[in-house]
UniProtKB/TrEMBL annotation:
<dbReference type="InterPro" id="IPR010985">
    <property type="entry name" value="Ribbon_hlx_hlx"/>
</dbReference>
<feature type="domain" description="Antitoxin FitA-like ribbon-helix-helix">
    <location>
        <begin position="4"/>
        <end position="40"/>
    </location>
</feature>
<dbReference type="InterPro" id="IPR053853">
    <property type="entry name" value="FitA-like_RHH"/>
</dbReference>
<dbReference type="GO" id="GO:0006355">
    <property type="term" value="P:regulation of DNA-templated transcription"/>
</dbReference>
<dbReference type="InterPro" id="IPR013321">
    <property type="entry name" value="Arc_rbn_hlx_hlx"/>
</dbReference>
<dbReference type="Pfam" id="PF22513">
    <property type="entry name" value="FitA-like_RHH"/>
</dbReference>
<protein>
    <recommendedName>
        <fullName>Antitoxin FitA-like ribbon-helix-helix domain-containing protein</fullName>
    </recommendedName>
</protein>
């Protein structure tokens, strides 16, 4: 089965030239450039897990890699008792 195809008509000359110029700068065809732009915008993104999301959130806060450094005060702490 052939891959789906798309024809785009009535592009402005400026847009067409910009696509060709960017494609040439990257050493690819204009068709490949448009394919990449469409894939970047519309292809489904892989779903990351909750752990990946939490790590990304923590990384955004510029915390020390070995964790926060705080003094633990253990005054007035009763040990746990189990019966």
């Amino acid at each position: 089965m052939p891959a789906p195809a798309l024809t785009i008509r009535r592009l402005t000359e400026e847009v067409h030239n910009a696509i060709k110029a960017q494609a040439a700068a990257e050493g690819i065809s204009a068709e490949e450039k448009v394919r990449r732009v469409l894939n970047e915008r519309f292809a489904p993104k892989p779903h990351s897990g909750l752990g990946d999301e939490l790590c990304a959130l923590a990384d955004s806060y510029d915390l020390p890699k070995d964790g926060p450094d705080f003094e633990r005060i253990r005054d007035d702490v009763d040990p746990a008792t189990f019966r």
